[in-house]
């Protein structure tokens, strides 16, 4: 299938590792010029160089900005005023119970996981609408958006906000070829999740065995009983970013290995 993505430009927030990096790589494979983002200049440059070597036919750019800071967002807009695809991927997450969480931490999660996507959409959506050429905004939420985790109530709340915002923004696109959607991954084998498995099962050397126990004990509702690969999410997001997926609008698209035990 030709996804008709060649020569488009995508900004993937938080794309130095994990799911964001996989999305960036999958897009580059399809001929998309990709803007790599993260907070550290060194890490962003390293990913930029690696992907540029791997995909010489596209342009890979570096956007080392802390997007939780307004001034750095302004610098991003100044350097990259035009994109065709915005993937609001970046988010923070950490386990904490409701009793432990301070109001300051709630505010911080709202600021990083919700406001950044709002701010970037405020800047890029009018431009996408003006161009009206299959522009895309894709939010990366989580199964926690529809199945809030008791270990991460703050994170879960912000992920539910992503769904609501994407639906609201999709209403602004009426009658155009621009779409706004959310993809909700389930537990995915990123570097962060690999470290979590290590800390949960320090006496077990095999990653496969750690993963098996994790799924059995910690993710029993997953029907695939394995972690999703970042590449699976990356390839799905690339499809949603393509003109071929133009009939998805305001959708909350689950790719969670069956972990949410409801029909929708
Ligand atoms: N992993 C999972 O199992 C899973 C499951 C469901 C949903 N998700 C969602 O998928 C998305 C990606 O998760 P992940 O696990 O791949 O994350 P990750 O491995 O922790 O990577 C986060 C990325 O965001 C960047 N980042 C963090 N704060 C930033 C900031 N203020 N400004 C710019 N960049 C920033 C990080 O780079 P620097 O540290 O260099 O800044 C890194 O590139 C998130 O929205 C998450 O909620 C993940």
From TrEMBL:
Name this polypeptide is given: Short-chain dehydrogenase
Q: Which UniProt keywords apply?
A: Oxidoreductase
Q: Which family does it belong to?
A: Belongs to the short-chain dehydrogenases/reductases (SDR) family.
Q: Which PANTHER family would you find in this protein's record?
A: 3-OXOACYL-(ACYL-CARRIER-PROTEIN) REDUCTASE
Keyword flag Oxidoreductase: yes
Q: Name one GO molecular function term.
A: oxidoreductase activity
The family database entries (Pfam families) matched by this protein are listed as: adh_short
Please report the organism this UniProt entry assigns to the protein: Weissella viridescens (Lactobacillus viridescens)
What are the recorded Gene Ontology BP terms?
A: bile acid metabolic process
């Amino acid at each position: 299938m030709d996804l008709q993505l060649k020569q488009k430009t995508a900004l993937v927030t938080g794309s130095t590792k994990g799911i964001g990096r996989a999305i960036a790589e999958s897009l580059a494979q399809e001929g998309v010029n990709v803007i790599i983002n993260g907070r550290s200049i060194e890490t962003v440059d390293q990913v930029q160089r690696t992907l540029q070597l791997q995909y010489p036919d596209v342009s890979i750019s570096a956007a080392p900005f802390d997007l939780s800071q307004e001034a750095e967002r302004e610098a991003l807009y100044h350097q990259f005023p035009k994109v065709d695809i915005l993937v609001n991927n970046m988010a923070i997450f950490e386990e904490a119970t409701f009793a432990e969480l301070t109001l300051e931490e709630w505010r911080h999660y709202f600021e990083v996981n919700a406001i950044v996507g709002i701010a970037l959409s405020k800047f890029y959506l009018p431009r996408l609408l003006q161009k009206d050429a299959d522009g895309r905004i894709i939010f990366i939420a989580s199964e926690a958006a529809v199945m809030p985790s008791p270990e991460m109530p703050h994170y879960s709340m912000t992920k539910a906000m992503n769904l609501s915002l994407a639906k609201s923004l999709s209403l602004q696109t009426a009658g155009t070829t621009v779409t706004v959607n959310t993809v909700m991954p389930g537990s995915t084998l990123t570097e962060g999740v690999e470290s979590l498995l290590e800390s949960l099962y320090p006496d077990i050397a095999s990653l496969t065995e750690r993963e098996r126990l994790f799924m059995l004990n910690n993710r029993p509702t997953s029907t695939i009983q394995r972690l999703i690969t970042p590449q699976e999410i990356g390839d799905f997001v690339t499809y949603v970013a393509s003109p071929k997926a133009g009939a998805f609008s305001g959708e909350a698209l689950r790719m969670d290995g069956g972990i949410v035990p409801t029909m929708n």
